[in-house]
Amino acid sequence: MRPPPAHSGQEALEALRVRASRARERGDRVAGDQRLEQNLESLLRDGNQIWEAFIEARGGTFHHLIPADAEGAYQQLRQLRERHQTFLELGSGMGVITILADLLGFEAHGIEIEEELVDLSRDLAERHGSSASFTEGSFVPAEFRDEVSLLDGEFHTIAEGLDAYGELGMELSGFDLVYAYPWPGEEEWLADLFRRAGGGHAQLLTYSVSEGYSLSGPFGDPDPA
Question: What are phi and psi of 59, to 5 degrees?
Fold first, then answer.
């Protein structure tokens, strides 16, 4: 049996440096998560206050803004951050989930149709030390907007609006992880839209009140037309 190859002192030192660097990264991440969890309650409270004030200003009437389970989103994003780098929220509302993604290490972006909510999201991000970006406009790519009027259901995604992807300088296919809280009846359409317009490597995370969070994809590149 041959003896294992001898390593030079330089190689051994370099190996130690690599292990030490990885240990520091793990320690920094754990410490960062602990700080984030300590601030999570404050972020969720601020986001809820923004929602309540937004609805109250409209006389308590129904609005298409309905918050999802942000704490559940936090747990999902923690598990997915090792696999993905870029994050996009379709219809980002008050911006809480996009901010969480940014604070967990994603390059995080949100698209929101309401100009006022975009401004509120940017303020909330700044207040919590987040560099998440928020863009006003429709998250439906221009070539798919006509499909929205054909959907069944009491409520529909608002397809009219500014070209958010043009403002972002990125297409839907450029994101690794895409998150959405679709209206009832739009789940299958949204998944199909993602298959056609999203990146073949990407995954789609969705939320519903009845089923919680669901992860689908990657679906691979679509067949050429």
Answer: 70, 20
